[in-house]
Design a protein that fits this description.
The protein is an alpha+beta fold. It is 30% helix and 21% strand. The chain is built from eight helices and eleven strands. The chain has helices at 3-12, 51-56, 84-95, 121-130, 168-171, 179-183, 218-240, 246-253, and strands at residues 16-18, 24-32, 35-41, 44-49, 113-114, 145-147, 157-158, 164-166, 190-193, 198-205, 208-215. The chain starts with a helix and ends in an 8-residue tail after the last helix.
């Protein structure tokens, strides 16, 4: 082995380099300018690279959380370039980004989190691959969405056991309580008319408002809404049977509307 290689090895071993996005790494092996080995310590990862890439800061640590300070690509066979799983994963991280100012993250998603396992893209993509309706589209060509709280009502954590892919028609069955309801402490599905002093019950079905009548109390109105909405959800479940997963279908058939929804 040449004197130059030996001298270069001694020069390179233990030398630290700062990367553009992945923190600092240290050289732990050197054969030549095209074959060096570096180690990242936070998080720990060892990889081979070219010295030129080190100098330019272009060596990557796939375990480093570069996505919203939480998500990493991970080590595995799943590619991020223009893949459905990647776009769904990025969207999930964005919706649950606690540093995001304004928008839905401060209300509907303000306390929603992603399980530790899914912060690694490889794990999420592998789960997606096993789902019957991953990548499916409805008759209008719209992709099924990742849902977190149909299988487990009220769930606030994206995880393998709680999530599923559902069509928009199913996802839109479940809405958060509008500001009007919160302001006047009314049950979901109930509004109050100052002019008549009556409470009205209504819900949306296939983009149309279904009025259920006027009632003397908010409880009467809510009971009317609860009965009609639960029936509507079961009807939709039967209509979509075979085009949604078994666990989603079963959850819909058993769904109960609560006054606290």
């Amino acid at each position: 082995m040449s004197t130059y290689i030996n001298r270069k090895r001694l020069e390179m071993l233990g030398k630290e380099f700062t990367t553009n996005r992945y923190g600092t790494c240290v050289v732990i092996g050197y054969n030549n300018a095209l074959d060096a080995t570096v180690k990242f310590y936070n998080p720990e990862y060892v990889t081979k690279c070219r010295v030129g890439d080190l100098v330019r800061g272009e060596v990557c640590n796939p375990l480093f959380p570069i996505y919203y300070g939480r998500g990493c690509i991970g080590v595995g066979r799943f590619n991020t370039k223009n893949t459905k799983a990647y776009f769904v994963w990025r969207g999930m991280l964005e919706r649950t980004d606690s540093n995001k100012v304004g928008g839905r993250s401060l209300n509907a998603y303000k306390d929603v989190t992603v399980c530790e396992e899914w912060l690694n893209f490889q794990n999420f993509a592998e789960w997606c691959e096993r789902q019957d309706f991953f990548g499916a589209k409805d008759i209008n060509g719209e992709s099924y969405a990742l849902d977190k709280d149909i299988v487990v009502k009220g769930n606030r954590v994206y995880s393998p056991d709680t999530c599923s892919f559902v069509p928009r028609a199913i996802n839109s069955l479940f809405i958060s309580k509008p500001k009007y309801f919160l302001k006047y402490y009314l049950p979901i599905g109930v509004t109050f008319c100052k002019r008549t002093g009556k409470f009205s019950a209504k819900f949306n079905s296939k983009n149309k408002c279904v009025n259920l009548g006027r009632f003397n109390s908010s409880d009467e109105a809510f009971q009317a809404y609860k009965h009609a909405k639960e029936l509507h959800i079961k009807t939709e479940a039967r209509e979509w049977k075979g085009r949604i997963s078994v666990k989603v279908y079963e959850a819909l058939i058993k769904w109960e509307i609560s006054i606290d929804d």
